[in-house]
Amino acid sequence: MTRTGFVGALAAVAVALMSTAAAGPLLAQEDLPWNSGQTAPPPSQEPSEVERGGELPPVDDSVLPDDAMDDKPAPGIGIDPGEPQPQGPPAPLPDEAAIPAPSGAAHSPADRRDLPPPMAPATNELPPAGAPGAGQPTLNWQKSPTGAPPEASRVSPPAPLPPAGTAAAPVAPLPPVPTTPPPAAAELPPPAATSRPAGVPVAPVAAPPSSAAAVPPPADGRGTTGLTPPPATAPPAGLAPAPPAAGDAPASAATAVPAAAPPGPAAAPGVAPLPDTAAIIPLDKVEIKWRVENPFRFFGDAKDTNVHRATYLALSPEERQTPILSSERALATRHPEGWAATMFRKTCWNRARNEFVCADDGDYINPDKHAIVAELSGANDPAVNCIWRVSLRGEGVGPGRAEAVTKPCSEGLVVDVPYPDGAAIMVEIAGRPVAQADVKVRDLLIAGMGDSFASGEGNPDGPVRFSRERTAAYGGGGKDLLGYPARVGDWKAIGDKAFIEENARWLDQACHRSLYSFELRAALQLALEDPHRAVTYVGVACSGAEVTAGLFLRYKGNEWVPNPPLLSQISAIAQAQCGKTDAPAQDLPEAYHMQGAIKDLQGGLVLRKCAVEKARKVDLLLVSIGGNDIGFSRLLANAVLADQSLLKKLGGWFGEVEGQMEASRALDVVDQRYKSLNRALHNILHLPWEESDRVILTAYPPLALLGDGSATCPDGTAGMDILADFRLSQKRAKDGTWVADKLQRVMATSAKAYGWTFADAHRQAFVGRGICAGYTDNAFSIADDLRLPRFTNGKWVPYNPADYRPYAPRQRWFRTPNDAFMTGNFHVSGTMLQKALKLESLSWFQLLLASTYSGAFHPTAEGHAAIADSVTEKAREVLRKYKQESPDLTAEAKAAGTSRLPVP
After folding, report:
1. CA dist., res. 454 & res. 867, Å (int)
2. Which residues of 226-256 are buried (b: 16+ CB within 10 A; e: fewer)?
3. Strand order in the sheet with 620-624
4. H helical segments located in 391-539
5. Which residues of 765-778 are buried (b: 16+ CB within 10 A; e: fewer)?
6. Using CB atoms within 10 A of its CB, is residue 820 exposed (0-12), middle (13-18) or buried (19+)?
7. Residues 817/847, Cβ–Cβ less than 8 Å
8. Where does residue 69 rank: exposed (0-12), middle (13-18), buried (19+ CB within 10 A)?
9. I need a labelling partner for 120 at 20 to 30 A (CA). Which of 79, 531, 630, 684 fits?
10. Residue 518: helix, strand or coil by DSSP?
11. Between β-strands 413-418 and 153-155, what pairing exists: parallel, antiparallel or unpaired?
12. Residues 6+ apart with CB under 8 A from 70
């Protein structure tokens, strides 16, 4: 269940490749497994983070931390594949079936995404000198994203309102706004909020004066000017913003204002009077609904988030019981090549710099504002005008400072709301205040760490594509290695530069980290289901990682790239907590080896640590680790290699193929490693001891269980006919199941001892969906066919490889070696292969890499989604405990008799 079938064995390949590049002479550029124009950093420029067995790097202060090392309530599996990092844009994928463009906008086939048209650039013009509000910030009119009404306005820092009783300039009527048919149900954006639960107090809204202030639009008609600043700092009449909630209390829902408010003044000249507004719009039914414009901040483009939002909203009540799995299936149906291909290059992870930073180079970790979309429910008549009054809170915003916008009531507003202070929003119709909302976004920091099961191994963001006509041959050893699927492209030989440039693409190439990771999918779901919540996600999981080499010690990943990870995973999260400032290194030679029980951590341990007063608190920490620590990949290799295979004879060189006895001995030290990790999470990452349940440890799913939950996959080569050396042994598979069950019990016991949350509900969902689920004859679909396509007697059997869809829904939730070849297809340059193995006759060894280092024996995207549903359920419970949910959603969930949040 961790690493690929051989990956424990194949770890030596990655080590050999790294050693060859670092210690020996550099290969010719055309032979390197990355694109031209990149060179490997010389050893003298390697980062100073301590590596396993390396020298201590210099640190600023060689002083032990002040943290108490008391053992308070104090814990995975990963398979590694690998492949070089291509440079430049990925090869174009086939056109994807797009869902209808929202809001009636035409969809461009070139987009190949479910995205609305881009927003128009915001304007930021000031009124002419001497005009009312001159010198004050003004409103920016801007097209809102999917989900916002047309022509929603973006409010920048406000100008003061005039004092009560001041005569106001007339308001010119707005030009008519064209309307478009509503979007299809599957693409509807979420409403901004849900109804306020009974019992939530409402801040009073004072009635407006007899001469309510109005805002004249500028000459170009694009927006309104700032209001004339008042001589005093008293709050404006007609708007009494509710004070910020104390502490970390959640924002209250939008609330309706009683219709008994006094009527406003007569309409100004040029504005059509609305004497019968009450007859057109029942004012006592009007509410302000609002939502965060881009709640999953890791996606740099809000349109990418909206693709997932629209998919989530289109789910049926039954599908919402497992919303992530259901969404994955819906997305895969529309995007069989994978939805992540158009999104992974637009995230807030910079691969070149190995840090979390967005395209605007702002402070991703510590936002100072969030854009929210506000609209009215119960008042959607475009013939009626509404005045929106926004009072921002926070540093630099004086008391009573506000801004006003007059718009048709059918339109909404996009407002940049200060974080964490928020804003008060009020709406007037015909001079009468009809609704107000206390807008306060809750931003969660969710971090993910661990091994290949956490990274998303086996599910590249941009999978490999195959030619419809070409074939590939892997010669050597007298084997019949002809007629294999061949990649697209103009390559001449397997492993040449053009061939390597067509490798699979990953969010992080060295670690095989992708957007399909269950940790990322859980964080994304938590962002989507609460309209008042934003999520700042930090994922650092790496394929092949252990508690020692990976979490505590720097680990370069299992694919050699010019810019491998600079820090261990604990240090990387600590650095992220510090945002734009550096987290200093701390020399910790004796703190975490648990009295010699963990020899790898004795002496030379250096970790980054952000000062507690600067570190952002981690709200949830998702963890998958432990499988590599017991050498499960070597146990797996023992179960799938034929007894007399050459690969098994080379087993010692590959990484010591092991059996049940060796793996059982390793289980004895896993708890000590979890205990050491627990200590670091509290002392390095500042997780409060009394909030240990914010750590969610995730169980590994069963690899080979049949539908009855007890029998394992039978002897055979189903899904493994890519190489004759592969053959599953049922007896050895049972040994692996026995060890996996023991690891499961150790993980559950450790989680309970250290106060962590343990997510394991998904294990039952994997029963019957193991590595051998599918067909070896007459499959109902290509996705469920376990055979590898081969070109025989002038035709492809059983199907043309160009028709393979790696993310199509299927019965099995694990990648077989055949699946891995058809999805990741990892190869290295021929020259590097010869240098690493020093055996030219093993050119067929590329097949082994392509079928194992590409993610074999790892969950598919559906498998990751099922795990994410299990983790999300536990995460909701934790957030509910610490009152980090919107109270109205919690009330509705209780009323519905379910712990799941309803669709907003």
Report:
1. 10
2. bbbbbeeeebbbbbbbbebeeeeebbbbbbb
3. 533-539, 442-450, 620-624, 695-698, 757-759
4. 452-455, 497-500, 518-528
5. bbebbbbbbbeeee
6. buried
7. no
8. middle
9. 531
10. helix
11. parallel
12. none
The tens digit of pLDDT for each residue in 336-362 reads 889 999 999 999 999 888 999 999 888
Structure tokens of 886? 């919107």
Distance (Å, whole) CA 312 – CA 686: 34
Q: If you count DSSP H runs as helices and E runs as strands, how many of each does the chain have, helices first?
A: 19, 24
Angle between helices 730-754 and 632-640 (to 10 degrees): 160
CB 217 within 8 A of CB 224: yes
**Tokens representing residue 277 in the block:** 């507004």
- Distance, CA of 735 to CA of 44 (rounded, Å): 45
Is the whole model's pTM more than 0.90, yes or no?
Answer: no
204, amino acid identity: P
In whole angstroms, what is the distance from residue 467 CA to residue 489 CA? 8
Calpha distance 650→631 (Å, rounded): 17
The tens digit of pLDDT for each residue in 210-247 reads 333 333 333 333 333 333 333 333 333 334 444 443 33
- Evaluate whether 561 touches 510 at the Cβ level (below 8 Å): yes
* Cα dihedral value 721, 804, 833, 791, nearest 10: 60
Cα 697 from Cα 598, distance rounded (Å): 20
Tokens representing 331 are 């997305």
How many degrees, rounded to 5, is the angle at CA 564 between CA 561 and CA 567? 175
Which pair of tokens denotes residue 875? 């995460």
